[in-house]
Design a protein that fits this description.
Largest sheet: 5 strands, mixed
Number of strands: 15
Low-confidence stretches: none
Distance between the termini: 27 Å
Strand order of the largest sheet: 4-10-9-8-7
Number of helices: 18
Strand content: 5-15%
Structural class: alpha/beta
Shape: globular
């Protein structure tokens, strides 16, 4: 993971190409730092062309080659009024969409008290919520603790755009769950500076892991003790895959619930939305909610106005039709049942993957990371992950994602049940052969 004062090689390459041109001379400091990572999006584009057997790259849920879709979304695409489809939306979002989402948030997280949090603000996808959070709370030279490995877009958002430093923390142990000791050490080290900034992404991308109830208690205790020790703590809860929990010992509520009213020195930010929860990836609609024991509604109103400034100065406002489509879906009586059906489909795929891995222990090359939720699972690999990805794609028509040199991510959410065993068998066989060749 790059350090904030070091230009990414991909950015250097692009700057070299533009050197001597008018465009190159006009690039801002931020413009010079921008690059398009050869990560998930680029690899997914390759897989779309060549993954003839199975495409386990992008975090979407497919069935028989088509994305899942709620009936309310399909039915209402062409039935929106002009006000619902082409009029500008308020900067903070359609008021009803905000209040309905808050009501749903409380329903899904019954321990959350509505008066203790802000009204959610609509953002253009969760990525904009993360980016606006960076604009508001991350300065050049700031540090942010994040899981290693993590979603590759975090580097663009926090390091490239804001000049901050992502500090990689091995969130996952080599056993079955979180490495609480490693997380605690990283937090306590940052606490010495007086400020801790940490992002929790559960279910995690790329590992597909969520904390158990016991692990959640350990994280809450850690943050509380850090605040009581005098450090200010910013906790960003990236809840993109919230609710997709497949084991009984997983905490069923967002970590945001525990941090939103834990201590006056803790500011919690929940970034969530229907993108993954409601199978509407392309609608690009998310929500951002603030919570802190030290804030009242006047404080929340001030934060929302600042957030509105960040939105106004970037995308201006969020897509109107997406908000009204989601309102119709959230109020449609068919939606809960369909979501339950889709979730059950993903859970069946999860258990097929779990069963395969249990039946094939001690692989010579691949070590599965802990996973119990979400869309993905990942392997630590002793061979080059990109070489393995290319071998699977070009010779076997299987699309997966390489992250760094030693991480291979598979999105079981986009692989039909009847293909999962064959796909994983091919991944295991191909990795073993590469390992033998390296040896």
């Amino acid at each position: 993971m790059q350090i904030c004062n070091k230009m990414n090689p991909l950015a250097d390459e692009l700057n070299t190409i533009l050197e001597g041109t008018i465009a190159g001379r006009l690039l801002s400091n931020l413009g010079r730092r921008f690059y398009f990572p050869k990560g998930i999006i680029a690899q997914a584009a390759e897989a779309k062309k060549s993954a003839s057997m199975a495409n386990g790259t992008i975090g979407m849920a497919y069935s028989n080659g088509k994305p899942l879709i709620l009936s309310a979304i399909a039915d209402n695409m062409a039935s929106l009024t002009s006000e619902e489809s082409v009029a500008y939306a308020p900067t903070a979002g359609v008021e009803k969409a905000r209040t309905v989402w808050k009501d749903l948030m409380i329903k899904k997280n019954p321990s959350l008290k509505p008066e203790e949090i802000s009204l959610p603000v609509v953002t253009s996808g969760l990525t904009l919520g993360l980016s606006c959070t960076a604009d508001m709370f991350i300065s050049k030279g700031s540090t942010l603790l994040a899981s290693e490995p993590c979603w590759d877009n975090y580097s663009l958002i926090y390091e490239v755009r804001r000049g901050a430093q992502l500090i990689p923390v091995p969130f996952l142990s080599h056993g079955d769950g979180l490495d609480i000791e490693a997380i605690s050490a990283a937090v306590r080290h940052q606490a010495k500076t007086g400020t801790v900034r940490i992002i929790f992404n559960f279910p995690n991308n790329p590992s597909g892991y969520s904390p158990t109830v016991k692990e959640e208690e350990a994280l809450v205790k850690l943050v509380r003790e850090t605040a009581e020790g005098g450090a200010d703590v910013l906790v960003i809860c990236d809840d993109a895959y919230f609710g997709l929990f497949y084991e009984n010992d997983i905490s069923q509520e967002s970590l945001f619930v525990r941090f939103a009213n834990i201590h006056e020195r803790v500011l919690a930010i929940k970034i969530d939305g229907p993108i993954k929860e409601d199978y509407v990836w392309g609608l690009r609609m998310g929500f951002l909610t603030f919570g802190s024991k030290g804030l009242n509604q006047a404080h929340y109103d001030a934060l929302i106005k600042k957030l509105m400034g960040a939105i106004r100065s970037s995308v201006s406002c969020t897509n109107t039709s997406a908000q009204y489509l989601m309102l119709k879906a959230m109020e449609d009586p068919r939606t809960p049942g369909e979501k339950a059906t889709y979730r059950a489909m993903l859970e069946r795929r999860y258990h097929l993957v779990k069963d395969f891995i249990k039946a094939h222990p001690n692989h010579p090359v691949l070590r599965p990371m802990p996973f119990n939720s979400g869309y993905f699972m990942s392997f630590h690999t002793s061979v080059d992950a990109e070489a393995l990805r290319q071998e699977l794609l070009t010779k076997h028509g299987i699309g997966v994602i390489s992250l760094g040199e030693r991480c291979l991510r598979v999105a079981f959410s986009s692989i039909d049940e009847d293909k999962i065993t064959a796909v994983y068998q091919q991944i295991y066989d191909t990795a073993a052969k590469l390992g033998e060749a390296d040896f």
